[in-house]
Amino acid sequence: MNHRNFIQMKTLKTISVNYMIYLICMVLVSSCVPDLELDRLDQQSVNAYYKTASDANAAAIGLYGLVRDMYRDETINVPNIVAADDGIPFLTGNADRVALWNYNITPTNTFIGGIWASAYTGIQRSNVVLNRVPPIAMDETLKNQYLGEALFLRALHYFNLVRFYGDVPIVLDEVTSLENVEVPRSSLEEVYQQIETDLTQAIAQLPSTYTGSDVGRATKGAATGLLAKVYLTRAGNDANSPYWEKAAQQAKAVIDMGIYDLWENYSQVFALENRGGKESVFEVEYVTDLTGNNFTTGYAPRGSAIVPGSGSGILRVSKDLFDTFEDQDSRKAVTFLTSYTNPSNGALVQLSVDNTDPALAVSFWKLADLTSTIGGAGGKSFPLLRYSDILLIYAEALNEANGGPTAAAYEAINKVRNRAKLKPLSGLDKAAFKTAVLAERRKEFCFEGNRWFDLARTGQLVEAVKNENSFGRNAVIQDFNTRFPIPQREMDVNSSLVQNEGY
């Protein structure tokens, strides 16, 4: 294995180890029972497995497989696109995508259930590692690293849960029986406190860098950067929140590590050869034609023969997003596919943000892997946290904490703008600078699972969704829609859960 696929399977030995982890995880979190319940366990087999340093390493590596699956296609990313204002689902496609788009959201929506189930499966797997690895006799530094990885990923799962659903159950122990599985929801404050605790401990235990096949695993910088984003989210829209200063401090800590930097050109960020490179603070890695993602075939214009099996065209770019890019913004050509040459006849096909034909729609394109020969198996990484995100978190937090932009805030945002070939900002008041940062985030990170979260945390979701009204959207969105409903399946099996307001 190399740094591009340390969580993937390239040799028979690796396949065997990961399959064993998969079987154990499937025993520990059965798909046949509620996500906080379990089937009877073969405890003797589980206990027999967690004995050696190799077992501990394999278990830690196995944690990343679920994250890979969550981000490879739709579980997290599609709601962040269509439930915001960046993308439009094709109206003849998946009805649950359309329901998210027009805010006809019910607890039975498959995306609502999928996010919850995936997150709690990941939490259970982290809890297994945190419970089973400590007794193993092995190098303590490596042990602490593996535990730090489990803490980091558990925090990531809880961060997704709390942002989508608000109050959620906190489960910190490995669940090994059906007793006491009806866990009630904990408060927002309690969930965030747990996330902060996990990340603080992970920061102390994780290494700053890796070498060889370990490159791509969670690092001290990843945990610090995620904590900065957690604090930014906790600050919300409160001008007096103490979390602005905390977010700035954590972002500055990542900057001061001197490990990360921006690539000179935006296209380099997503290049296959730069996976795990200097701008990546934490990413989900894939392998072309082996354990790939669906960002190429899934988002190519419907029926286009430029990708294996022809494009699925499940989403199209909103005009509202497309028009936010200035013509000189170098990110625009990288982010979108606006035309292509038909390989069958050499004709140039022009794409549009207005044409109702899904075969002629502008497509999200910066994560497309045109080296792939198998449909749904692209190899580009999904970036969960980039250095440009750290810079913009720093700029936004400094502006809020200081009652207006500081020289350091301008330096941070202008570094991102300079890479995009845009003029530097200057002379803005606090409100104008905040607006500029959020606009920059939208362009820099579109299609990277940030937009819905950014709109929700800043109190702008309802207005933004109502303003994006193309293709007859007319979304019936209300203030309570800044939280998704608790999945109906969970409500049915856990009598201690209370549904979110409005659902």
From TrEMBL:
Keywords: Cell outer membrane, Membrane, Signal
Claim: Signal is one of the keywords in the record: yes
Chief location bin: membrane
Domain of life: Bacteria
Domain SusD-like N-terminal residue range list: 89-232
Compartment annotation: Cell outer membrane
Alphabetized InterPro entries for the sequence: SusD-like_N, SusD_RagB_dom, TPR-like_helical_dom_sf
Coiled coil residues, start to end: none
Residues annotated as domain RagB/SusD: 370-503
Sequence similarity: Belongs to the SusD family.
Protein name: RagB/SusD family nutrient uptake outer membrane protein
